[in-house]
Structure formats: C-alpha cells, structure tokens
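Example record for the data management plan.
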Amino acid sequence: MVTISQLTELLGWASVINVGYLFLATIILMFMRGTVSSIHIKMFNMDEKELNSKYFDFLSIYKIVTLVFMVAPYIALKIMGQ
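Corresponding structural encoding:
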C-alpha cells in the first residue's frame, strides 16, 4: 500500500523530471532550432512552417499535462500534509 507521503514524494520527483525535460526541450529548440529542424524536416517530410507549429503544440501540451497531472497534485498533497 502506498502512503500519502510516498505518493507526494513520487509526484514531487516526477514533477522535477518533467519540468526539467520541458526546460531542456525548450532550450534546445531555442538555441539549436536549425539543426533540430533539419533533422525533423528530413524525417517527417514537413515544411518548416508546419514543423514550427508542431514544436509549439508539443511544448504547450506537454506543459499543460505536466502542470495538471504532476505539479497540481503534488501541491495539493503538500497542502493536505500540513
């Protein structure tokens, strides 16, 4: 059986990992866009405008999912624990 404390710790570390990945992906897309875009254009046969839209969609959906399913429950459990 998982305790509230264990679940809180799990969500806390999952939040750190997901936010870290989101930050890393954003930094890579900001500073290495040309390299990453050229790879993805060749892999998926897309034009650059469509690919930029897909990057934005990915980052925005990933951010929302991370906030809703990791960060918000972690904060709620921390508040309940006090």
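Summary line stored alongside the record: Residues 47-82 form one domain.
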